[in-house]
Amino acid sequence: DVLANASTPESQKVMRELLMTPEARNHPVYARLIQRFVLVGQPDSASAGFLQESFERETGDVRFGSVVALGAVTGRLKDQEKAQELNGYLLEQLASSDDTDAQRALITSLGNAGFSNNVGALAEYAGSDDPQMRSTVARALRTTDTDDARTVLFDFLTDDHPYVQRSALRTLSRFDLSDDAIEVLRGHIVDGD
User: Fold this and answer.
1) Range with the poorest average pLDDT among 65-69, 146-150, 185-189
2) pTM, two decimal places
3) Residue 165 to residues 90, 96, 155, 158, Cα–Cα distance (Å)
4) Which of 71, 102, 123, 133 could form a disulfide with 113 if both were Cys (CB 3.0 to 4.6 A apart)?
5) Burial of 144 by CB count in 10 Å (0-12 exposed, 13-18 middle, 19+ buried)?
6) CB neighbours of 78 closer than 8 A, spacing ≥ 6?
7) Are the beta carbons of 38 and 112 closer than 8 angstroms?
């Protein structure tokens, strides 16, 4: 965490080098070590490239951890052209995936990126039969306070699954809601919808 919080190009280079060692790669929590890139406040393109390569090369939790971190790095890149390129890559990966675990990881990644143009792609999964998928969408929308995101979240307040409802409430609690929106929210809570 010290290296990630330092956020310098040098500290990121050391992180990448350490994560490529056999000791790190064979460690049981390697996927969580990769995810430490979410803490990097000023990531560089080399770190984004490292995470993209890891996502493409790895399997299972390491693959998913890499893509979740890639989204956070994408959203913080100073190079906006590269950030938009990576965001497009993540959107393409989501559109072409038929694996629900990968879809959830990619939805989380796009939420971490935090670009408002991702809301439409995330909203496509709001009607999933899988409550975990719907909950993932609700959590992913936490970084994009837009009218479209609010519409999805308010719809989730009447979801059949309480976990989806709670995820939507938690996300809405992060937004600066108008008095009218708070009244609608209050109505859902009081009426038990």
Assistant:
1) 185-189
2) 0.91
3) 26, 28, 9, 7
4) 71
5) buried
6) 42
7) yes
